[in-house]
Amino acid sequence: MSSYDVLTIGDAKLDTFLTLSDVHGKVRLDAESHELCFKHGEKISVEHTYFSLGGNAANVAVGLTRLGVKATIAAEIGDDEFALKIVNVLAREHIDRAFINQAHGEESSMSVIINFKGDRTIFSEHVKRAHNFHYLDSEAKWLYLTSLGEEWNNPYERAIHYSKEHNAHLAFNPGTRQLAQKYAVIKDALTITEILFVNKEEAEQLVKDYTHDKPSNDMKELLSQVAELGPKMVVITNGRYGSYVLASEKRYYHQDIFPSIIVERTGAGDAFASGFLAGFVQDVPIQEAMQWGTFNAGGVVAQIGAQAGLLNKSQMEEKIKSL
Questions:
Q1: Which of 94, 140, 189, 280 has its CA 20 to 30 A from that of 65?
Q2: Interstrand relation of 252-255 and 100-102 (parallel, antiparallel or unpaired)
């Protein structure tokens, strides 16, 4: 039976990044509405195109592995030429593919990310899948349960069952689709969650949907409102304002962001989660684990894609020494 520090459960897909320039005046950002505008039917030059492995579960598995954690991923992908790239990247990152299920005759899920003036607009495709991946013949100390496409309810229930049966700690990062549908399984997962990773908007949505209270504007109070749903530790990221943690015994932590060049923001949340979790499972104190997450996110936003800037263990140790 294979054993792992962390098993991530979610999507693995191919991300296509298109970096646009406004040098020809064909693309503009409306300052008031924040809408990205170009003429319908227009032919627009792309400054740079980049392909990479994506998907929250894949991003976190790669991030954990680089930071010295034995991690793997359970996901279902297609069996086309893009699936081959997904499998090859996982192999290059020294990640076991035993729990990757290739659905015969199906295409890979893809995202197209438009990068313009340092921010991104994501067009995300989720091929409808049965999610027939299985990991019951494994032993994992932690599960990292994150976003899935359609038909996600059953794999979430299987993850909860595994966590209970195997005494595996659950780190939970529900996706946009899961939060929008408000299924009871989300509430069930929250009650056994060891660490919950959400951004501020997601935290506010959880409070509104599952407690029916008004989310607080005070971060300490918002952390407490989310903690009432069951997770032992709540981690909230809030962009340029940094990250916030409420741990056991009502211990509260805040971490500012570190200065970083911002090229493209895709995967910053996954990078923070993988950095924090990698530190935490290796017995790093919570404040330092937040620094791991912050440095990891800073590395990712300084490059194109969700994985190119993920730090390895020696790079992280050097960053921490520099503080």
A1: 189
A2: unpaired
**Are 254 and 244 within 8 A, CB to CB?**
yes
Intra-chain end-to-end CA distance of the chain, in Å: 41
Kind and range of the H or E run holding 59:
helix 56-66
Q: Name the maximum alpha-carbon separation found in the chain.
A: 59
pLDDT tens digits, 146-189 = 999 888 999 999 999 999 999 999 999 999 899 998 889 999 99
2-13+56-108+127-321 topology per CATH: UDP-N-acetylmuramoyl-L-alanine:D-glutamate ligase (3.40.1190)
**Dihedral-angle region of residue 125 (phi above 0 means left; psi in -120 to 50 means alpha; beta otherwise):** beta
Tokens representing 2 are: 């294979």
Q: Is 268 within 8 Å of 301 (Cβ atoms)?
A: yes
For 88, 189, 195, 244, 315, the CA distances from 287, given in Å and listed in that order, are: 35, 25, 15, 10, 18
Residue 146 · residue 195 · CB < 8 Å:
no
113 contact partners, CB below 8 Å, separation of at least 6: 15, 16, 17, 18, 120, 121, 122, 123, 264, 266
Say what the pTM is.
Answer: 0.94
Rounded Cα gap, residues 155 and 157, in angstroms: 5
User: Residue 150 contacts by C-beta under 8 Å, 6 or more apart in sequence?
Assistant: 126, 128, 129, 177
Q: Among 112, 126, 99, which Cα is nearest to 19's?
A: 112
Q: Do residues 18 and 114 make contact, with C-beta atoms less than 8 angstroms apart?
A: yes
Give the closest residue to 270 by CA, choosing from 58, 116, 92.
58
Query: Would you state the pLDDT for residue 125?
Result: 85
